[in-house]
Amino acid sequence: MIKYKLICKKCNHTFDSWFASSKEYEKLKKRSFLNCINCDSKKVEKTLMAPKLINKFKKQTDEHNLSKLKKIDKKIKEYQKFIKENFKYVGKNFAYEARSIHYNNEKNKNSKGIYGTATKLDLKELNDEGIKTEMIPWLEDKNN
Question: Residue 19: which domain range?
């Protein structure tokens, strides 16, 4: 596939179009199958185009960014492992459980911390009640 920038010689409208090959473009042009998308004129020509150059710096930057993302991914997974091993998972009952711990503090002094899911509204309400929470990114395990 090849993409050409085309120009209408009648209305000077420029537009892009894809062709199977440069020969296909020539064949369609010769048969007058090319027309302007603006004024329907058959006076359509290729215009100057900048070639797409391979940028070694961009490739190095992409590789560097990918490396950074892998490090971040690894660190998040380490945090997740720590949380799973040291905190109690309460699922969607997070807001309820957080309130239970906060308001019944004497009973739950020795209880494990909790983690789970909550809506933004739940988190805002907990914060308004003086219950501190933290939001962390959570990556799903792709192996399951």
Answer: 2-46
